Model the fold of this input.
Amino acid sequence: VEINSAVNGICNGNADDYYRIALKAGERVTIDCQAQRLDSNFDPVLSLTTPDGKLLAGNSDYYGQDPFIDFVAPQEGEFLISLNDLSYRGGQPYRLTISRQPQIENIFPAAVQVGQASQFTALGRNLSGIGGSSTEWSEAGLPLESVSFQWQPNDASLASGDYSFVDHPTHHSVLPTAATCTLTGQQIAVPGVEGLWSNPPVLISDAPVLTETEPNNTQEQAQKVSLPLVVGGRFNASQDADWIEFTPTEKGPYTFNVYCERIAGAADPYLVIVDDQGRRINELDDFGHRINAFDGHLRDPSQEVNLEQDKAYKVLVQDRYGRGGARYHYVLEVRKAEPDFYAAVIHRSNQNPAGTTVFKGTATYLDVIIHHKGNTRSDITITGEELPPGLHIAPTVITNNTRGTLVLWADADAPDYTGPIKLVATGEFEGQTVRRNVRPYSRVWNNAGTSRPHRSQMIAIREQGPFDLRIEPTELEVQAGETAELKLELTRLWPDATNKVSIQPHAFPGGFQLGNFDIAENATTAELKISVQQNMRPGKYTLTVLGQMQVPFNKDPMATDKPQTLVATPSRTVTLTVIAKPQ
Done:
């Protein structure tokens, strides 16, 4: 194949794919196999050999499961690229690129302050054509080059709390988890570099960005900074330890964040906080929610910690396994805890990849995941905007919780639709409204740890569903310790949807109780009594129940045989306003 070309292929089981390239002596090329980054389940192993089979280079996991080879030809001639699946499975697609074009490994620092242009240094390969120069950094035995550039973020990026991306947004993760679901930032383009997978992510902040200064390997050498701090750092070599010292001017909770996996760093960092007596007061490690199909767990530490005023603290940041090098960069953030949140949604299917389809006259739901910030859990309200005709979303309140259920329903006469919708989350903090776009995700493969971000929440409206459930009234005030008495109405939309419907509470928050029950065959109403615990926190809570019915169904409309198929449909929501019991 020619240099600067891409090959799309499918590797057969128990076989290798071979490609031949011709190089001049000293010519540097990058060989990149993209599979996980294309949502393929192919786990490639990449090798480069001489024509007689002598191994020159090999790789299996560089960008997550995807391999990458950086190679300088020792002499002019032909070389063989071989590619196979790790377990020799077949049938999974991939894309192989062979290039001498500029390629970016990462940028430093991987953080930027809004409102001003900042200077960055990009590390990579074949950068001499865009003004790059050699460095002391190397990767896999080959030197990396660097190029400097300026870039200024859009102020709107910080205001919206979004993460915008060009390439696959989590291609650097070991698995395509929702690693960037708690990152405010974007992927940026280095001037003169146009290739894919060369748009590194950065954190966008309102605080000044510093860089870590060596030597700071011991507590005595700790780099002194002031709060709020955003420090771009790197574990320069094996066993590198970075110490930072600061003195809070206020007592209270402070947010500690190490951004590494979220900004394409290769480290698994941990963070240790010690006081002015050298006593360890906390150690932070992995964080992030795993809820149903959503996997937001990642290697980065993040937590709120209470600190004393005018007391010196030192923070250690280090790779869990003592690794270091050009790829092991990170950003440390320490600041007074401020209320905020990140909101995400994912499709209802827990085991498999899925889309979101709303059948006319009925409802479906999305799982909502909330990552709270600032040592508080405010009431978060999810609403829909830019909805197509006939699609509805009731304002959904998630109170003091990290998860919830967002119900969507379509009118019986809603037109067919396939396209995006916009979901917005708002919270009230000390009289101020914080508005955040809800980030959509879907599961890529039928196993855990494969949550993939999307630019838009896509939905489809299609043919009529078999039955519909709604709760009346849609809003009710109830006192803690009492029972909310409601009515559940069942509409049987298909003539043969006559079986009983099994009702169960769907992801109720703690403090509400409802036993499972059935709506009898051919019946259309039932009482719905939801008990509220005595100590229930006052506030608004949006609830839904799930109904399950065996329905005769066959995809072929002309078929006479219609086997019983279990259909699960959520009810329209009810919002209960819980008030405190009088003393």
About this structure: The mean pLDDT is 94. The first strand starts at residue 5 and ends at 11. Helices lie at 155-160. Residues 337 and 374 are 4 Å apart (CA to CA).
